[in-house]
Amino acid sequence: MKKMKRSSRLVDMTQYLLSRPHTLIPLTTFAEQYRAAKSSISEDLAIIKEVFTSEGLGELITVTGAAGGVKYIPRAPKQQSLAFIQRICAMLGQSERILPGGYLYITDLLGEPSIMQEVGRMFASAFADRELDVVMTVETKGIPIAYATASYLNIPVVIVRRDNKVTEGSAVSINYVSGSSKRIQTMSLARRALSEEAKVLIIDDFMKAGGTIQGMMDLLKEFRATVQGVGVFVESEVPNKEEQLISDYVSLAKIAKIDQKEKRIEVLPGNYFEMEG
């Protein structure tokens, strides 16, 4: 690459870092790419770090030593995220979204790229300090959130199927009880989709009693995998707390009350905003 002006180099370095989150990049990579001294690269990174911090884009961590470099960690400032989720709660509070069984129609939100990107950034921020190998979700509505989250964590996505697909080869299947309907259902995961003892972040679009998530946890035991965290876009209040199967999770929005007769919904920010940091 030909030698760049410093202004151009700063733009190019910023783009390079943003597209490679959670990746350790040696200073020599930048020095060789831009034909610049390491001291100049260090000065550039200090400027980028300051902008990232002031604009709430995340952290730029410096790792010292022979194998050191810099690593970009995406972060979502809590106040900015709260304002975003409050807008989402207002949208979810529209009476026409009420579905039978205390569910809400959220498919339109899951299909909006700008919303999914912000949701993914929030989950990536919540679990940034966990050691993770993959993001897992169950088909189909959780897929957009899982991919948005994985893009900020820079790790693969694994999709649990409702039934075994012949195109995925041999698979592990289990039966599980849906927490809300109490129906016995099946989910499966291709053996090649997940390494043994993988560290997994489970992401789902909606949780009521948590039966589907518990099913994924049980499925992961067959792979000797470890669940490092659970993220839920929208959770619904369960009248009987004893029916709640999952207790350790992060939610972004919470349905506090649905009055189907009066067509009224109360949606509040989730427990993510009760977390420290």
From TrEMBL:
Phosphoribosyltransferase domain sequence ranges: 109-254
One of the GO biological process terms:
negative regulation of DNA-templated transcription
Q: Tell me the Pfam families matching this sequence.
A: Pribosyltran, PuR_N
Question: Which UniProt keywords are listed?
Answer: DNA-binding, Transcription, Transcription regulation
One molecular function GO term is: DNA binding
Outline the subunit composition: Homodimer.
What is the name of this protein?
Pur operon repressor
- Write down the species: Insulibacter thermoxylanivorax
Q: State the encoding gene.
A: purR
